[in-house]
Write a structure and sequence with these properties.
Length: about 80
């Protein structure tokens, strides 16, 4: 899968997993969604994401990266 989608973007401190998922989705990689709890995350005030805004978590940057890829791949409007 990584040979098709690529590796995680090392320039992203946060959001690298979301960026990878977006790239896989844009390439129409089949994604299986499991309807079960598969991970429990412990949240506390020492988490590196605690108190971060969406900007600090790179969510807006990751969305923009996806939009930029889609614009680059789209044929020019007639």
């Amino acid at each position: 899968m990584f040979d098709r989608v690529g590796l995680f973007d090392k320039s992203l401190l946060f959001g690298e997993d979301t960026d990878w998922y977006n790239r896989a989705n844009e390439l129409n990689v089949p994604i299986l969604r499991v309807e079960a709890v598969t991970l429990h995350v412990r949240r506390h005030d020492k988490n590196m994401t605690h108190g971060k805004t969406l900007v600090e978590l790179n969510m807006i940057r990751v969305v923009k990266m996806s939009i930029d890829r889609q614009r680059t791949a789209a044929p020019p409007a007639a």
